[in-house]
C-alpha cells in the first residue's frame, strides 16, 4: 500500500475527530449557528475599525480548551481566526 494513502487517511481521521469535538461542544453549549454568525458580523465590524481584514475568511467556533495545562476537563471556548491584511491608523488615541 502506498504510504501517501496511509498518511492522508490518518490526517482525514484526525480532522474528522476534531470537527466532531467542535460540533459536540457547540451543541453542548447551546450556541446556535445563527448566534455565531451574528457574533462574527459584530467582531468583523469592530476589528475592521482598527485593521484591514478579510471578512470572507473569518472563522469562528466554540471548541473545548483545557482550563489549565494538566486539567482533564475542557471548557467551551470561543475561537476565532481573523486574517489581517494590515493596520489602519486613524487619528490619535
Helix-strand blueprint:
Elements: H1 3-29, H2 33-47, E1 51-53, E2 59-66, E3 74-81, E4 84-87
Antiparallel strand pairs: 1-4, 2-3
What do you see in this structure?
- This protein has 93 residues and is of the alpha+beta class.
- It has one domain (3-87).
- It has two helices and four strands.
- The chain has helices at 3-29, 33-47; strands at 51-53, 59-66, 74-81, 84-87.
- Strands 1-4 form a two-stranded antiparallel sheet. The chain has a two-stranded antiparallel sheet with strand order 2-3.
- β2 and β3 (74-81) form a beta hairpin.
- The longest helix is centred in the N-terminal third of the chain and has 27 residues, at 3-29.
- The relative contact order is 0.15.
Throw out a few tags for this protein.
93 residues; alpha+beta; two-stranded antiparallel ribbon; 2 helices; 25% strand; elongated
Brief rundown of the structure:
45% of the residues lie in helices and 25% in strands. It has 93 residues and is an alpha+beta fold.
Amino acid at each position: 500500500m502506498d504510504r501517501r494513502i496511509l498518511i492522508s487517511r490518518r490526517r482525514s481521521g484526525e480532522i474528522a475527530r476534531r470537527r466532531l469535538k467542535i460540533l459536540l461542544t457547540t451543541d453542548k453549549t447551546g450556541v446556535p449557528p445563527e448566534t455565531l454568525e451574528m457574533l462574527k458580523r459584530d467582531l468583523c465590524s469592530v476589528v475592521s475599525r482598527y485593521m484591514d481584514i478579510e471578512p470572507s475568511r473569518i472563522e469562528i467556533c466554540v471548541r473545548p480548551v483545557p482550563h489549565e495545562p494538566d486539567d482533564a476537563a475542557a471548557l467551551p471556548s470561543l475561537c476565532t481566526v481573523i486574517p489581517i491584511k494590515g493596520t489602519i491608523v486613524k487619528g490619535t488615541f
